Amino acid sequence: MAVPRNKASVQGSPVQETREIAINTGEPRASRIPGLILILGGMLLIGILAAFGVINQYIQTVLMSIGINIIFASSLNIVNGSMGEFSCGHAGFMAVGAYVSSVLSLILFTDNKFFGPPLVPPQTAVFLFPVVIIIGGIIAACTGLLVAIPSFKTRDDYLAIITIAANYIIMTLINNLEILGASRGLMGMKATVFAMTDLIPLPWMLLWIMVFVILSVGAIKRLMGSVLGKGIAAIRYDEISAEIMSVDTNRIKLLAFMFSSGLAGVAGGLFAHLLGFINPSSFNIMKSTEGMVMVYLGGMGSLSGSVLSAVFFTFLLELMRPLQILKWVFIPLLLILLMQFRPEGILGHRELSDVFPQLQVFTGAPRKKPPAAPRGRKRT
Prior knowledge:
By secondary structure, this protein is mainly alpha-helical. The protein has 16 helices and two strands.
């Protein structure tokens, strides 16, 4: 006897949920509008306050450091949190992006003894600066490819050893390249920032860092919400089961490592132009440890946690600045305490909108509708 098909028989099933998501695709897009307006309004307000001197240079520097740390921590969270791998040398990719973007900036916009006169008028840095930063991120992503390939057959401690070795290889290579200043370091990137400010007197570095923070966080959010992002999460839970379910784990690892390394390179380029001086010791194993502290403090796999922990950690570093060298004892100690007493971090695998559902209106998360009552019955 054939079972009659009706709508009540599929209520609450995965098929029905998928159908409802497909029908209601416009709702998340509409709910993103208030959040987008709030973000753009906040950027405009900060830019105006900084331009008129209400926000002094020190506060601007702290805000810019927070933005760079958000990009750095969020990029590392893709590998260590969302994919469940264990990368310990992420600062190496940050160094690649910093040096590539710095060299491009010196060649294009400045007059110096190593690279000669600028190739283009320095004022064009207002438009070409983001291109320089993105190129640095692309080269860093290609460097991440060299780590992704041997990671196909390794996990956990073995991958940690590979990434630490990659960090030291990059540092040693830079230390022996005289054109990059070797161990003395590279400087002169501030001239690019001054060229932008001379053309239009605005806090350009603060504005560009805020733009890249929004783009980076938005890109990670879209990635983890896509089919590729679900494959990354599947590797974290069980790589063998993911392969059985036809997930191309090698391809996903490759893309995740490259994307993560590219964002770290973007953070490195912004970091170099913020300070105006970099050397290989700026990207040693301690810098990688800072990234791991921020990831595990916020919660593995939580994008909101990485943002919150980057804000908290940057303020913590500023408070510990009088301690000088002692802060490098406290930071690894903080990582040990996290692993012992709060391994899930502040949010764990949850997002801020999961803890505070009211924030879903700003994050664009779809609202779940109650299931429709079966035909022939009244709603209770």
